[in-house]
Prior knowledge:
Helix content of chain A: over 70%
Domain HTH tetR-type (chains A, B): 13-73
Order of helices and strands of chain A: HHHHHHHHH
InterPro entries (chains A, B): Homeodomain-like_sf, HTH-type_Tx_Regulator, HTH_TetR, Tet_transcr_reg_TetR-rel_C_sf
Structural class of chain A: mainly alpha
Number of helices of chain A: 9
CATH topology of the largest domain in chain A: Tetracycline Repressor, domain 2
CATH architecture of the largest domain in chain A: Orthogonal Bundle
Oligomer: homodimer
Number of strands of chain A: 0
Radius of gyration of chain A: 19 Å
Largest interface: A-B, 42 and 43 residues
GO molecular function, one term (chains A, B): DNA binding
Protein name (chains A, B): HTH tetR-type domain-containing protein
Keywords (chains A, B): DNA-binding
Amino acid sequence: MELVNEPKTKRGLETLDKISKAAEELFSEKGYYDTGITDIVMKAGIAQGTFYIYFNDKKSVFVYLINKLGKELKDSIRFNTKVSKDRYDEEYMGIKTFLNFVGEHIGLFKIVWQAQFVDMELFKEYYESFSKGYVKGIIKAQTKGEMTDIDPVILSYCLIGIANFTALKSIEFDGKSSNYDEVVEEVMKFIRNGAFKNKES
Amino acid sequence: MELVNEPKTKRGLETLDKISKAAEELFSEKGYYDTGITDIVMKAGIAQGTFYIYFNDKKSVFVYLINKLGKELKDSIRFNTKVSKDRYDEEYMGIKTFLNFVGEHIGLFKIVWQAQFVDMELFKEYYESFSKGYVKGIIKAQTKGEMTDIDPVILSYCLIGIANFTALKSIEFDGKSSNYDEVVEEVMKFIRNGAFKNKES
C-alpha cells in the first residue's frame, strides 16, 4: 500500500490533495528523477513532517499518483457512459472523456510513460487494468452482435492506442485545449467501420 | 547537428556504432538521467577521448540515437513495402515490420518516450515525421478510392497508436519475441474494416 495513513479529516484530505497536485506538476515538469521530496513539500506548502504522515518516500507518492489518475479516468468514463444506449455510444463517450481528461492533465503521458523506469509492473498494470475493463465490454458487445469478431485483447489495445495517440497529437502537439468533438468524430468514423457491425454513420 | 565529426573510415563507423549500441542499452535500462558519459564509454569499450571525436555531450548521443532509430525504422518499412501491390498490403507489411523492429529494439518505448523530458521538440518531431509519411500515402490511397475518407492526419495517428500499443502489449508486456503474424492478422481485421474500402478478408 502506498499510503502510510488514510486521511481521517477534511483537512487531512486537503493536505493529501495538495501533495498529490504538487507531485503531478513536478513529475510532469521536471520528471521523477529530478524531483525531491523537498520540492514536493515546498510546492504543496506543507511541513516536511506532514509529508511523512502520508508517504514513506518519493516512490510511494508516484505509485499513489499513477493509481489515482487511473482511478479518476476510469470513474469519469464510467460516469459519462452510464446513459449510453449501446456499445458504440459508450465507445464514443469513452474517447471523448479521455480527450477531456488529458486536456485537464496535460502531463499525463509524461507521468505515466516514465513509470517504465520507476516501476515497470506499475506501468504494465496501468494499461492492463484498462484493457481488462475494455475486454469485458467488447466480449459482451460481440456476443450481442454489436461488435466485429476480433481478438478482444488485441482490439482493446488498438482502441487504447488510438485514444492515446490522437490525444497526444491534438492536445500535446497541437495545443488544442477544448472542443475535441471534431477529433472524436473522425476517430469514430474509423472505429465504427473497424469494430462495429451494422452501424450506419 | 548532433555529430561533431562524421566517421570517415570503417573503423570510425564501427566506433560510432559501438557508442550508439551502448547508449541504446543504457538509456533503456538505466534511463537517460542515470546514465553518464563514463558509463557509455565503458560499455562501448572505447577511450573517453574517442567519445568526444563524435559527440559533444550526452544529449547529442541521445538525439543521434532517436534520429537513428527513427531512420532505421522508416528505411525498414520502405524496404519491406517496396513490392506491396496496394495500400492495404503496405499497411500490413508496415505493421509487421514495426512489430519486428520493436522485437529487435526491446527498449524502444522507454527510449523514445523519455524524450519528452530530454527534448520535447525531438519527441514531437519523431512522431510528426512518421505521421507526415503516413499522410502522403493515405491521401494517395483516398484519391484512388482505396481508403475511407477520414481526416488523414487523425487517421495517421490512429494507425501509429495501434502499432505502438499492440507492440507494447505483445512484446513488452507478454514477452512475445517472434512470429507476430497472429497479432498482425487481428490488427489488420480492424484496420481493413476501419480504413479500407471494398477490401474483402
